[in-house]
Amino acid sequence: MAVERKFIEDSISRYRLAAYLEKELDRAGFSKVDIQRTPMVTRINVEVTKPGKVIGRKGKTIKDLTESIQKNFGVDNPQISVSEVTNESLEPRLVAKNVVRSIEMGRNVRRILHFTLKTIMDAGALGAEVRASGKIVAKGARATRLRVGAGYLPKSGEPSRLVKTAHVTAYPKFGAIGVLVKIVLPGTVFPDKKKTKPVELPRVIKEAAAEEVEGNVDIESK
Length: 222
Hints:
Ribosomal protein S3 C-terminal domain, alpha+beta, GMP Synthetase, Chain A, domain 3
């Protein structure tokens, strides 16, 4: 029983630390964190879009972050390394945050989802799904769900573990909207599928994505 409790406590500690880093490094474009505990050190690798903001001038920011983790989470000898995100369109959390920002700005949710899906697939993803759930229409309306998807995306079993997932909540004036993003990264090999065919997006998605791009240009030019 003591062993099971140790595993549970370790998982809770990892979750709290990951949540803390996500909040602290949000302005640095936080994507994900990998935590590895060893008998000597705890290695923490964070992936962000702006590594300079994590490191800080003369390493002050990362030093303060290390001391804070050691003090608040009881982590012995934490060692933080920073990696730069190579392609934001293939990072589910960053994609979901972009969708959330667009929703909170009042843009058309359906067009946003179509545009986002096209961006993901154009980046080389083998499959993707973008879903929005909540008060999408207007104040007082019933909660609803919009979903767009393309490519190969296993839903259950061992292959589903290879799908990268992130969930972020938007808070527009009409009510909360949950945004779920799932992505199958390029080069992913599934045991139940030998070869993935090129994905052709439906015409409706391409047209809606083009309209969303035009709308963004109009907003920025004003």
